[in-house]
Design goal:
101 residues, alpha/beta, Transcription Regulator spoIIAA, five-stranded mixed beta sheet, 44% helix, 29% strand
């Protein structure tokens, strides 16, 4: 799993590449949390354009970052979901918490 990070105007964007499972979710969490702690962004955007597969670890990953950003008074946006991933996010209830585009 590769994660590209971009910070601009208090917006932190994580570009995810590869599958998300219990092994890769830990790495993504660590990178995300380090950048959130460092920059305290008001908006976290997670780009799933290059993600083909995600198990429940991905839901936990998003939920944990949602709680962290919410505690900072910010919001989370999810972008570029495949129909498969959009369905997983919707069935999990995450679509009620985060903005999905």
């Amino acid at each position: 799993m590769a994660v590209k990070v971009d910070i601009n105007n208090n917006i932190l964007t994580l570009y995810l590449v590869g599958d998300i499972d219990h092994h890769t979710a830990k790495e993504i969490r660590e990178i995300a949390d380090l950048n959130i702690d460092t920059y305290s962004p008001k908006i976290l955007i997670i780009d799933f354009k290059e993600v083909a597969f995600m198990d429940t670890s991905g839901i936990g990953l998003v939920m944990g970052r949602y709680k962290l950003i919410k505690s900072l008074g910010g919001e989370v946006k999810i972008i570029n979901l495949s129909p498969y991933l959009k369905r997983i996010m919707s069935l999990s209830g995450l679509s009620k918490l985060v903005k999905i585009n």
